[in-house]
Protein 1
Amino acid sequence: MEEETYTATQRETVLIRPAPPKVKKAPKVSVFSAALVTSGWAALISFAPVLVLAAAAWLFEGRSAASASAIGRFSAAAWLLGHGVPISAGDVRVSLAPLALTILIVYRLVRAGAHTARGVGLGRSIADAPADPRQVVKLLAPVIGAVAGAYGLLGGLAAVLASTPGLTISPIRALLTTGLLAAASAGAGALAESGLFGGVWRRVPRQSRHALRTAVVGVLALAGAGAGAVGVSVAVNGGAVGGVLRSYDTGVLGQAGLTLVCLVYAPSLSVWAASYLVGPGFLLGAGTSVSLLDVRLGAIPAAPVFGALPDRPVTWLGALVMLVPLLATALAGALLARRSDLRTPRLAKSAMLAGLPAGVLCALAALFTSGSLGTEEMADLGAVWWQFGLFGGLAVAVGAPLGAVAYRLGPRLFRR
């Protein structure tokens, strides 16, 4: 059979791909325009729930539409109180901030800082991100300043609108307080949104990073233990709590409003209970203090939750409650041991060093949850900042190393 030869002609094939469509980048806006929009939106979102609740209370009480201005002034005053701005009505001064509202305000301001940074082109794709803290501050200063300035002006304006001859709110104090809160919160949001936090965080020594993380987790664990203690106490003393609630004789809606007020202040109560668990306790006005070893009850606020206050110091068996903060902080140490590959001695040292920043955080928490509630007898409410800072930091410094070492060495001991 004759072989047939096939000749293939090789041709170069050129693949021509269409050019990708040009994507128009969103134009950058000025930092002042972005800050004005984001700050206004943050203020609106945090102010709306207060206004809705105040309007609902007025409507259920059968007030006329002529009270609309009073609703607005009361809502503005309550909104400023959530920022820590004190309110004065004659000789009565209220400065105890509703911490649940404060948490919402801080969250919205963090988002405002993040959105402002993104709007001016400081997103995560920023090129040549600096790691030097001074350069980071210089880069984010316009965003922080613009948000703080815009939000501070809104706070000052709210103080002017809310003030009446019988209700006094300092516009200067409102401007400074809301502006500083906005600067701190927006700075955190801008730092996270820009991606600059990672570079700054990596410059912190490794052992210090572990200590800071453990401190934050330990303080949150203490606050969680305090919240659990409040819940257990309310459940155990349900009869006394219900008696205080029924004594108001305000009907179902009024009782719901009182319950809502207690819920708004629930984070503050958790901090007070945490201070009680670690030892120093808290104050409830003149002649009233509550701690593990000393309980002095005078004229206490007529709130249902205070019906669950202990009326005597703990007994020797009740002293076991002191193990609660140690167990809570030991959890923070165990989480540190789970995430870290440090050797056991350095691990225990990092967990022990966490007591220092934890003490600072506890002191700040006590400051934010303390204040007055009107009358002179209720001028001092909350935990004493230096006492809670000292004992809270000590609880973390003792419990966290125990938890870390137990998590690391426990499996080895059981295998033997």
Protein 2
Amino acid sequence: MDMLIWIGAVVTLAGVALLLWCILAIARARKAGLPDAELRTKLQRVVVLNFGALLLSAIGLMMVVIGIVLV
């Protein structure tokens, strides 16, 4: 079960890294001074990735907890 904990930690870190990328992408889009319609389109794409990153992080944390419980 130790492997489950480590794999869960890696999955969680991947989700957090993707969350940080989403934050940076939104900051870059705002600084670019795009028109409202283009900015909204970019933000909608990032929101989908943001939800995916949150799901990935949650799954990784569940794997860690399950690994700890089973040890």
Protein 3
Amino acid sequence: MSKKQVIEKSLPVPLSQAIRAGDFVFVSGTVPFDDKGLVVEGSIEEQTRVVLRTIERLLRKAGVSLEDVVKTTCWLEDPRDFGRFNRVYEEFFPKDPPTRSTVRADLMIDVKVEIEALAYAPAR
């Protein structure tokens, strides 16, 4: 199976933002960074939109879309944000949403949300 790294920008940590491995695309845990690598301040809604748009861009570069996502794992800093997070998440996955795990966690940087994704789409 071939493995191809999907590069969007350089991060100050030793990881690939996304990797296509055969028919699967694995997107690393993504936090709300802007194009300069700075944290986007704001509400859970704003941060969730930034994260999901970044994931959408990474998937597109790997030749897939949000519709191909089969599983996400989501970490929220504050469980009281769950309802508002859910409403934004639904905007990006309005039909046949992927399976999902959502947990509360102390995140590594001062953000409200982190999301990783796994997509499946046969390689062309």
Protein 4
Amino acid sequence: MKAIIENVNIQAITSWLPKNVLEMSSLVSLFGERDVFNIIKATGVERARIADETMTSSDMCFNAALYLIEKEHLDLSKIDGLVFVSQTADYILPSTSNILQARLALNKSTICLDIRHGCSGYIYGIFQAALWINAGACNKVIVLAGDTSSKMINEKDRSLRMVFGDSGTATLVTKGNNNMGFSLNSDGLGYDKLIIPAGGFRLKRTTTTNNVKKDDNNNWRSLEDMYMDGAAIFDFAISNVSDDIDELIEYMDWRKGDIQLFALHQANKFMVNSIRKKMKVDIEKVPINSNNYGNTGPASIPLLLSDLLDENNFDLRKVILSGFGVGLSWGSVACNLTETKFYKPINK
């Protein structure tokens, strides 16, 4: 699906980080020095922020939203849409977006929606907000994107524990003078390549689904833990993301050479660089910050933007944002961010 949505703008982006820092080098006693440093070298992830036992994705996103409201001096009565993008909801039901509407004291007329996407979810969230605004249903929509990925991972699964981190973000989408181009894609045939098998209604939790077993690569997990076929996810991303971006650029009638910033989902340094090389784009146009935060799922793109752009070091007239992952799903947005305010991540 490709579409251009007119007269929308991303006004501001904030991010919130847990205080707990996991240094990957500290896992030597658990996984062994050789394996730990080989994984750090391969992924580029040196540390990640980890939420404590009581903190949820909605807590982090709530904090990011308060930060956004404070910085932008927002009138809460003027916010009429809220999108919550996360795989780690507070409950199976009700929707977490409704809970956040009440916590933020937004109007009861606020449209609320949960999007249960992961690493592509930010693109889907911005698309939904832009649709509401373009349709005349909303004027100001807050997109809250975040995951406590660490809580989905078995602590003895080195393949995932050394890659993922936690964060919550808030993005304000409003009416404006800019157009956004979107490309959204799905391939459900690969649903089992990144999955938590038990806990839904296809396979309910039982007395045996939490039994932890070791796989052929010495990673330990149960059916209630996240599983990722790393090779399959890498092949999927390399096969689809670059082409999707190229097709969107052509759809927008842009020239690739005019684009100074490609903000890709921060899966890890190796994957981002591999996609960049296939796109044939200069390294300085594709920033990476996963070394300090790991893969933060739907939060990774806004975290990247707020982390690196508070000083506006890039030409932001033509920007590509692109996310990819669980589903399988992937998507990109072409946008103008010259009017967007970026606020440095906080953890207070």
